[in-house]
User: Fold these one by one.
Assistant:
Number 1:
Amino acid sequence: MKIKRRSSQAEVPSMAMGDIAFNLLIFFVILARAEDDSHLHWEPAVATEITASGAARVAVLIDSDNKFYVNGQQVGESQLADEIDALLGDAPAGERVVLLKAHKDAQAMYFEPVIEAISEKGGDLVHVLEQRQE
């Protein structure tokens, strides 16, 4: 005796396909954006005698790719002075602290324009270093 099999065909509603495509699009847009923000590579320089600094209004970072970041936002070399000036505002002397975080392998041609921009705008330069372990 043979048993007759029923053939079943599943159909996906076309409305669900649109929702799935929209959710995938949102997922990949968010994933791509998260990838762009996570490429800061910075290893601090080391020194033997270090003193702690106070709170800072501005932090300038030079990463391993020699890109400039002011308070986490990437800027070009020509925009450094304007960004620092805008963030320091009308702060009085003693409250114009600017942290300079340069990658340990950064060359002078990359950190000298930052030092110049900070001094031009009246900032108090503090270089971020790591205590040398002996």
Number 2:
Amino acid sequence: MYYDEFFKLCGYKPEETEMEKPRIERAFQILGISTEDIKLAEDRVRFYFDIGLEGSRKLLGVWMKQLFDLVLAREEGKKIIYTSFPSMPALGLAAALASEDIYCQAPEVVLDVAMGQILGKIKPILEEAEKQGLPPGLGMCSLNQARFGAIVTGIIPIPDLSVVGGFFCDQMAKTEDHLQYRYGYPVVYIDQCYGDSPWDEFPEITKRRLSYFGKETEIALEEMKKVVGPELNEEILTIARHENAKLWFAQQDIAELMKSDPAPLSNIDIGMEFQMVASAERRAVYEGLPAMETLIEEGKQRISQGKEKIEQGAPKIFFYSHHFSDPSIMRLLEDVGLCMVTGHFHTLGTQDMVKAQAKTYGERRAERMLRFGFYHSGMGAIYKAIDLCKLWNVEGAVLFYHYACRPMNADVYQMKKEIEKQLGIPVIILEGDYYDIRSYSAESFRTRLETFAEILRARKAAKGKIILMRG
């Protein structure tokens, strides 16, 4: 078949492709994926992803399977719960693990990675969203546009319940209001008092905030139980929490490999597992985790063999977050000689390792989210960035002013100021959109990043000379 080679690149065995043929062809029909699209996707995967590694191929395959699961969920008789991104991963994962008859995932993440990064076909979905209610030029979040455009065009099914996180993004809740008005499905919102605190409060968490956020989580859980049934019980909530922790620690192990000089893995490939962990579901546990473990072993082998993916001596940097729908940004970092070792959503900070003290399930989940820093306040996000830069001993930081995201861009310039002041390392801010490449391109950043990389290399060389002279 015309897609055999593509799925081979995505880690499928020939017999698996044959077995999955009905699902593949039905999903491609719904998505409008043509023979030519697949040929272009083959070239795209070969160019951007490290297909010489089995772990990378398997991660590509898991994302394609997640896309098929999403598109075919209703036809395959699933009850559907959509979460949003950012989500409370352990909560959504519990619903997904409770029963094979449940599909629970943030659809916009699947669409951005599979239709964006892998297939290069996210643009028509965004354009349809702009035609039908989320117009361009008004700062609409393109992650929300992916969700909205896919629903209004029938690419993905209407859910039985939508669990929307308003604890960070207010725009997501308003987008879901629009969809609920159109289609009438039930929605439950998880809100909190984001940023409603003194500037220097973090890492403290007030009882008022914890109680409110925890209660919102408990309400959402009760609504999810109405769809899932009695299987969504205390036991499965505990299992999901443990499985989610395994994913996070595997991600941490992969990041640890990037401390090696030269670094053994690509910035692009480690982004695939970050997005999988940040919005975990059933396949992430049963197929994604083994793929990550394979990638870890392959990374260790490359280190022992002296093989590199990113050139030796590449400055280690903090990067705000991986791009969701376009791998060319992460590729550019490598091209100019920069190695990402840590980022806000990619690695665990000091506060992430503090054991939750809250008693109820809802408050424990809320405490975990608030300790993450990013979901606490602007100062929490700055604290987390500085903490990670220290823990990973980075030589510079690349921040991102995300056009259409108020919570992500509100503190970027203050973050730059504080990192430079407290750590004395260079910081650069790029401007763009994490979920949409149409208004800018990776190449527009090249000259600035090349100059930034040269500054970091010069500082590193000078530091080495000083150490040598002192020795």
Number 3:
Amino acid sequence: MERAEALAEGVPRRAPKKRMLVIVNPYATTVSERLKNLVVYALRGRYEVEAVETQARDHATELCREAAGEGYDAVVAFGGDGTLNEAANGLVGSDTPLTCLPGGATNVFCRTLGIPTDVVDATEHLLRLADAFRPWRMDVGRVGGRHFVFASGAGLDASVVRRVDAHPRLKARLGEWYFTYSAVTTFARRYLVQPPRVRVEVEGRSLEGVTVIVQNSDPFTYFGRRPIRICEDAGLRTGTLAAVVLRRATPFELATVAPRLFSGRAETVGRHRQIEGLGTVSDMRICSRDGEAFPVQVDGDFLGEFDEIAYGVTPRALAVVA
């Protein structure tokens, strides 16, 4: 008996299971009831897991605020980038770390954090984290009362997001090709003749354009496996945002911008004659130049139309674990 007790004392003991809340968007591109059950079953091998499905827009934000108040050790956003954005908005300013499982069409932030895009591989990744649970803090951007984790856009980019979000089945079936089709048709219908123009005011400077891209991290997005890099010096722990302005949009100009976007090099994009790089900024304001409201998106989710909107950054505001 004494020998058995001595042997037991020599065996390393695992720490108590961490409490994990998995927030599931049942309408995300690749999420199904069967897949959710398999993921939750697997995670329960190393965590004390509770899973909740979102019921409406901003429900994930509400659930995350409650999770932070109840002392969960981690929250997993299982859905697309829109679900992750809502979850981040609920956890900003708290000590409860956020992580994610890929369930959307693009899963930009999952890739940015180095989490695999295959949900089985991503689940195994989270299981391994149980033995190396080291949360760290990242910056978040702010715009229009909303936080964002990787990027926001005003103008053509946001118009494309609104069109894509209006057709979720085509988005799920065609992926990045539907984004391409939507970009072409949206440009032809709204931006080819008299596009809505904006004025950007930043650090005493004022310049005009038709689209503004603001990044909190790199890359801006992905086309398949290819990263699309637009703003230089974007990073999750820089304490700043990075931004560029597209001054003019014509068929000729966009045809010359596109190859630069697919180069994978932000500095190549920034050298285009119609793109003005603003460098790193802490705050900026965008106003309508012609009285026509302009659209805004955050983390690939349409936010609305505005006559004026302000951007800012909150350093180290969100805890993450990956």
Number 4:
Amino acid sequence: MYNANRLKLGIFAANCSSGMAVTKAPERWDASWSHNVQLAQLCDAAGIEFLLPIARWKGYGGETDFEGETWETITWAAGLLAATRRLTVFGTVHVALVHPIFAAKQFVTADHIGGGRFGLNIVCGWNQDDFDMFGVAQREHDSRYDYGEEWWQVVKRIWTADAPFDFEGRHIRLRSVVGNPKPANGLPVVMNAAASGAGRKFGARNCDFLFTKLVDPEQGRNEVRAVKAVAAGFDRAVDVFASVHVVQRQTKAEAEAYYRWYSDEMADWEAVDRLITLQGLYTESLPPEGYKKFRQRFAAGHGTYPLVGDADHIAAELQRISDAGFAGVAMGFVNYVDEFPAFAADVLPRLERLGLRAATARSRTSP
């Protein structure tokens, strides 16, 4: 994650059935274990920096039960770390559902499997129906981050303390805590995605990378500045990442036609509307055309920014995102294994020529 590439690249949500596309298209992503290993090794060979999973415990319903089949992210990460050589593989954890002592041991095990390549994505609160299934009440919004702060303090202290310690927090109280082994190569990289004031403060204080919503690159420039200003208030620097979904074809017209087909004609609208509702997004104030575009973006790629076109267009869009100040993007495809090879073959060389990535990263051999 700390190489010289100006724009880091990763894969988002490959651990979930259908990935990021809320579609009934028959070629949509089948998140079998063999497909995940194949994808991880393709990314490893291409010099892609990271894989980032979604932690989801139940589906969104609809005809496809979107994301109804998901791999638990820490064991998923451990398996993929064992199957690769260079990738950072993140695990995504809901802190309210996992005790910090157990979490510290679990993460460090994955980290040693990968020789120090494990990354941690901290989530302090999420969809209520997941928590209902666990019988766990979510805390009031801002206090979720207070709990997350204590949780992360405990995990870090387990990884760094040489002697047993007590912890006396507002939410967590522990006695004679120990934990070995320690991480393989210092503290793992940590990321967080939050849009609220409390969430951004948490991320700015504790994380190396912070994901923020990308509506368009120009608006994103202001988001990057806002995040970095919060971090500067804590005398810290963080890199800001965005999420995108990619439809690459030989021509822009061909890509746009496929985009319309899978994200409109073949959209699983019941699951789309459930996804929007659970994320607490309110659309009543949008004009009809704005609402249609907003809803289709969720069908196409979980609400992320669309990169739809030929290789030249996609590379140019990624340059715009980089120029706006983003340090990296996490990408979704309708079918990762089928579509990523064309991205690696056609877009990566263009990013190299644009100076966004080093050519040596692409020429690495596969495991």
